[in-house]
Prior knowledge:
The structure holds two protein chains of two kinds.
Chain A: E1 4-7, E2 10-13, E3 19-25, E4 33-38, E5 45-49, E6 53-54, E7 62-67, E8 70-75, E9 85-90, E10 96-97, E11 101-105
Parallel strand pairs in A: 2-11
Antiparallel strand pairs in A: 1-3, 3-8, 4-5, 4-9, 5-6, 7-8, 9-10, 9-11
Chain B: E1 3-7, E2 11-12, E3 18-25, E4 34-41, E5 48-54, E6 59-61, E7 69-74, E8 79-84, E9 93-101, E10 110-111, E11 115-119
Parallel strand pairs in B: 2-11
Antiparallel strand pairs in B: 1-3, 3-8, 4-5, 4-9, 5-6, 7-8, 9-10, 9-11
Amino acid sequence: EIVMTQSPATLSVSPGERATLSCRASQSVSSNLAWYQQKPGQAPRLLIYGASTRATGIPARFSGSGSGTEFTLTISSLQSEDFAVYYCQQYNNWPLFGGGTKVEIK
Amino acid sequence: QLQLQESGPGLVKPSETLSLTCTVSGGSISSSSYYWGWIRQPPGKGLEWIGSIYYSGSTYYNPSLKSRVTISVDTSKNQFSLKLSSVTAADTAVYYCASYRQVVGAAFDYWGQGTLVTVSS
């Protein structure tokens, strides 16, 4: 069974700074990896699919990279609206989410 | 632009069956382009995929829930439904319906707002 591990659990970042979030799969998921943003009381929003393709309407400051077992979500310059919880999800077989990374204001 | 909306009881008794419906608007549930799914999130915790269905009726379930889950589709009403049997307090969660494009794979691009279901006597 695949295990998805996200790190760090919490990331403290100042507005305007770069944020780098990691997601690791216990076995290869190829490029079948998505990233979501979730704010309190809201449904998750798809940011990235196919490990690196931005979903419709997602700003260019969000970028995804990686393949196989190691993946990264980078937010190039954090805006106030980017403080949220981020989840990775593999869909190489049945969908499985990571535990999430909370990006908070430093 | 697809819109999804969950509906169903907010309170279910232990050992009973949880039943939710997702109504799709802005597109046809019979579209060959989309799969439809259910995802849940216990309060303060992460996301768990429950299962997915194609308009043809083909279903895919989380192995950890498979024995208790049934997902069905009603093309005449543009709805799909979730039934989860023998619920316990551990099934208390916000339940989301969502969709993903067949050509992309199970990256869920449209979501309902979610509905909180509490399991309690």
